[in-house]
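step: validate -> pass
step: tokenize input -> pass
step: predict -> running
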Amino acid sequence: MNIQTNIEKKLLSHFNPLHLEVINESAMHNVPPGSESHFKVVIVTPTFSGERLIKRHRSVNSVLKEELANDIHALALHTYTQEEWQAQFGEFPKSPNCLGGSKNG
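step: predict -> pass
step: emit ->
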């Protein structure tokens, strides 16, 4: 299992987020191609309600302590409650309705 997938599984399991993005930003840094060392996490969860930013970050870091100790060189965290996300960005992006693809033509 790759590091990005492991991060996603752990965060999904622990925080049950409404929205989660785990983005491998390693290619933006001076590392070999295919590296998994620099990540950005965007997570929206009710778990963060009433928590200060530092506590949110510590919560995420605690869940990812093994990866931070062994694999991850840099981790950018963007942690939101649903209300904070909606105030800044509006609703979560919605997927378009399926038009049937190859079944119709």
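step: describe -> The chain has a mean pLDDT of 88.
step: cleanup -> pass
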